[in-house]
Amino acid sequence: MFQELGISAGTAIIVLIALYFVIKWAVKNGIKEAYKNITGKKLSEDLQLEALLKKENGEDNE
Fold first, then answer.
1. CA distances from 23 to 19, 26, 59 (A)
2. Any stretches that span the bilayer, and where are they (predicted)?
3. Please, what is the Cα angle at 40 between 43 and 33, to 5 degrees?
4. Whole-number pLDDT of residue 26
């Protein structure tokens, strides 16, 4: 089947793995956005990231 498409089995596996991670990332972000829209709250992961960014920006300004 892969020969009919002009790709090797290894290439097909790599494409499927990449597709898996792209879909996983998109679903995760979609769920986070829906949670934020429904509850109006930010996730603890987002709060930690914001705190880290503020800390790094504060050190850069000094």
1. 6, 5, 36
2. 6-27
3. 60
4. 97
